[in-house]
Inverse folding.
């Protein structure tokens, strides 16, 4: 069985595949990260059994009549130093900050302090999502510090009073402070309800209703075993959280 | 000096003489011949390694010059791979800024250390200081990077009011890293001076400082320049430690505490995901780095020739 698509979903799909093959001897699952668009293309042309995607289908892709199985939420928290009194920023303010148009915290109700942007490298799926959702794919401030890992972004923001950065919600620790976006605090319930704006749903697309081995694998990914361990370890929120909060 | 030692009577080098000695048994002769060839192979592997890397990098990077154009690549002011803009001028300037600053800070420190070791330190002090300096050369660069990131960066951040990523932090980290290179070579240069000039200076009544500043340092000038250029090679090629503290923003230098990027750190940042022309551009940057270090080695060879002629 072949699973191709989003590099963001790669860690989930791959670890799940390894564990699936270990518990189901004789099965072979090949996972490769080629990008969401290629994954959708592959599953519709039949070269892959599952196409993974970190974006929704585009209008022209709706005609492909793919079956959508959401597997996880990817929410991105905007983080600041705990000493920073700013609690809430609008999406427009965050965009202006990361584009270098707002350069002092006093412009957004904070103290007179220079804003230090901490950005991620272009290989990062988090950066890609943040750029798409918050910046409408416009340019980041090119003068911003670029760090190659979530851990580094978090530790710099934890140390520097004027810093602002973004990381997957699952990697937030008490050493940094999350800000509410448009008045919505990033938490599992607000993500699952769709109220928190900086988030996306990670999908498995199949050509038809999953059956046979494909269904077994998809069910395995949706099982609490994978959702509560592999999905959370990758910094995402389990899709199964939806049932818990909607009850 | 490179001439092999020759026998006074026959005018033959030791190597040429060896097979003619009747006293040497056949098996010893074979062993000698085998060893000689073994060392030849060792030398060839090194040469072949350099040649292969050059051919590979050149082959992979060449299209950037033919397809993007030399001008757009070397003089382009914007590095935005997602928008197909591959101008490396800010990165090249970044490499220069980082290297020159590191040399400006590191050279006095290293030359001072060398003077201390060769002229001032007592035997016992030297036995402690010299291994410590040599140990600096053995510390992995990622450790320097961590030191810069966790210890220096917060201090620089307080001083400059920024996040502390940028040239100043990189300068300090690199300055410490190049001290062993420059210090050991400078010490060698000072030690290889004929003892007579030192004695003559003291005999004229010159003080230690006068002897060092007016006699020894000028006499060892070429050796010190040689040491600085090798230190420069180390600084311009350093990647990991720089990547961790420089901020990696591909823009022109605009402040001591403001992030910039260098050729080497940008290659490492981009390599994991670069594809197509982006990847080719990274190899193009490698060609530039290769040419720069070839130039530095050329200068060192030239200086060594000057020194031999002296």
């Amino acid at each position: 069985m072949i699973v191709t698509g989003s590099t963001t979903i790669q860690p989930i799909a791959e670890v799940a595949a390894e564990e699936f093959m270990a518990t189901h001897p004789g099965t072979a699952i090949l996972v490769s990260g080629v990008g969401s668009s290629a994954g959708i293309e592959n599953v519709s042309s039949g070269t892959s059994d599952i196409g993974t995607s970190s974006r929704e289908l585009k209008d022209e892709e709706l005609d492909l009549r793919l079956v959508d199985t959401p597997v996880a939420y990817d929410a991105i928290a905007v983080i600041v130093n705990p000493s920073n009194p700013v609690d809430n920023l609008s999406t427009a303010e965050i965009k202006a900050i990361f584009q270098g148009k707002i350069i002092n915290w006093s412009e957004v109700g904070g103290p007179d302090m220079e804003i230090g942007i901490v950005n991620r490298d272009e290989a990062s799926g988090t950066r890609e999502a943040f750029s798409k959702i918050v910046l409408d794919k416009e340019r980041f401030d090119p003068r911003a510090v670029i760090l190659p890992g979530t851990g580094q972004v978090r530790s710099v923001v934890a140390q520097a009073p004027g810093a602002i950065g973004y990381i997957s919600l699952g990697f937030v620790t008490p050493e940094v402070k999350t800000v509410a976006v448009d008045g919505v605090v990033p938490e599992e319930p607000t993500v699952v309800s769709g109220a928190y704006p900086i988030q996306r749903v990670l999908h498995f697309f199949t050509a038809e209703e999953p059956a046979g081995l494909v269904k077994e694998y998809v069910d395995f990914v949706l099982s609490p075993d994978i959702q509560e361990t592999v999905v959370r370890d990758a910094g995402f929120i389990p899709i199964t959280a939806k049932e818990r909060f909607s009850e | 000096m490179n001439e092999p030692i020759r026998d006074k009577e026959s005018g033959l080098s030791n190597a040429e003489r060896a097979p003619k000695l009747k006293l040497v048994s056949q098996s010893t002769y074979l062993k000698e011949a085998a060893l000689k060839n073994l060392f030849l192979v060792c030398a060839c592997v090194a040469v072949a390694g350099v040649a292969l890397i050059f051919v590979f990098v050149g082959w992979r990077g060449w299209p950037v010059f033919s397809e993007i154009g030399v001008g757009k690549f070397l003089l382009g002011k914007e590095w935005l791979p997602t928008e197909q803009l591959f101008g490396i001028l800010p990165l090249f300037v970044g490499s220069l800024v980082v290297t020159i600053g590191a040399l400006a800070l590191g050279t006095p420190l290293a030359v001072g250390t060398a003077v201390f070791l060769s002229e001032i330190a007592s035997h016992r002090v030297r036995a402690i200081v010299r291994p410590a300096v040599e140990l600096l050369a053995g510390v992995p660069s990622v450790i320097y990077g961590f030191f810069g990131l966790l210890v220096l960066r917060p201090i620089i951040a307080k001083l400059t009011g920024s996040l502390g990523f940028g040239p100043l932090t990189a300068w300090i980290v690199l300055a410490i890293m190049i001290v062993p290179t420059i210090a050991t070579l400078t010490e060698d240069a000072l030690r290889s001076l004929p003892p007579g000039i030192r004695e003559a200076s003291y005999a004229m009544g010159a003080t230690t400082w006068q002897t060092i500043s007016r006699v020894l340092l000028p006499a060892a000038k070429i050796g010190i320049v040689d040491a600085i250029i090798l230190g420069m090679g180390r600084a311009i090629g350093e990647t990991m430690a720089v990547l961790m503290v420089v901020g990696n923003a591909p823009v022109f230098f605009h402040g001591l505490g403001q992030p910039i990027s260098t050729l080497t750190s940008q290659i490492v940042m981009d390599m994991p995901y670069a594809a197509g022309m982006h990847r080719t551009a990274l190899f193009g940057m490698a060609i530039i780095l290769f040419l720069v270090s070839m130039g530095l080695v050329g200068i060192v060879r030239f200086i060594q020739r000057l020194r031999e002629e002296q």
Summary: Chain A is about 35% helix and 25% strand. The interface with chain B takes residues 114, 116, 118, 121-123, 139, 142-148, 152, 156, 159-160, 162-163 of chain A (CB under 8 Å). Chain A has a mean pLDDT of 91.
